[in-house]
Amino acid sequence: MPRIKKPSKIKEPVRLRMKELANGNKSLYLDIYRNGKRSYEYLKLYIIPEIDHNARRQNQATMAAANALKSKRIIQLTNGEAGIEHREKVFLLDWMETYKENQAKRGKKDGNQINVTIRILKDFAGDRVMMDQIDKTFCQNYLDYLLTEYRPKGKRVSNFTLHTYYRILNGALNAAVRADIIKSNPFTKINNSDKIRLPESKRSYMTIEEVRALIATPMKNEAVKQAYLFSCFCGLRISDIIGLRWKDVFVDRGQYRLAVSMQKTKEPIYLPLSPEALKWMPERGDKMAEDHVFDLPSPTMINLLLKPWARAAGIDKRFSFHLSRHNSFHFSLKTSSL
């Protein structure tokens, strides 16, 4: 007699689970498994030891709330697979606060700028605007408001500052797209010519005469002077020079080179060193391969030391370590020219 195949048990896409905590409570979370991927959502709901009737009643209410959230997630998953979009109703200003908190968790220092943007949005549109009401017209009107009506203390602010308030809202809307709060960022539908643009900045450059003046001017910290002039002739960033070790320096068929991974781009490069650059590299002596080439203080202290040195050399332009990379003579300037 053939065996009757039992119907297979349908697996739930979302399961409610508990995690034991050190204090004796149990944390409730959702174990979500869909399309071969597993994720977890901690509900910030807790089961407490049932030491009396009140504790049992509290746990019953907690479990009811957790199961309601579980059912909600199952409906969202089912609707998504059926092509039915479901997006939670979120106020714009509430999302801006959430965006500010998330930025802080990522180590971003734009909290004050986000606070100002929130105040501007409240003045512009009130505090009852929903995220699903943000469209191209809203974004264009926000830009127009910044350019024509926003006057803190009765004065017009610079385009640089206005661009910051545009950038903050744009970033928050991009984050909302990633969080599935909105489908797309309406700013993408606005022509770049209609957006607030940063004013063109004038870049300062080092001249040969200024380098000559720096070479002839003593400095309090000789290692910083050497590192700055080394950068003038090889173009490395301050972060790359601080991290430079003797193991990164090698000779290839008579040519000194650096093998470095750029701190900013993470791209490895093999940089040939000119005789002028080598002139400002310290002697290795008995240093080990892992030792740093330049014995330098922090980037902040480096730039503090550079300013009086530049003034003593007669240079009155805005001066920082980054300026050492703004020149056109990394390999063309000869020692005889100095």
TrEMBL record:
UniProt keyword annotations, A-Z: DNA recombination, DNA-binding
Protein's GO biological process: DNA integration; DNA recombination
Domain Tyr recombinase: residue ranges: 201-338
Highest taxon above the source species: Bacteria
GO molecular function, one term: DNA binding
InterPro entries, sorted: Arm-DNA-bind_5 (IPR035386), DNA_brk_join_enz (IPR011010), Integrase-like_cat_sf (IPR013762), Integrase_catalytic (IPR002104), Integrase_recombinase_N (IPR010998), SAM-like_dom (IPR025269), Tyrosine_recombinase_XerCD (IPR050090)
Name of the protein: Tyrosine recombinase
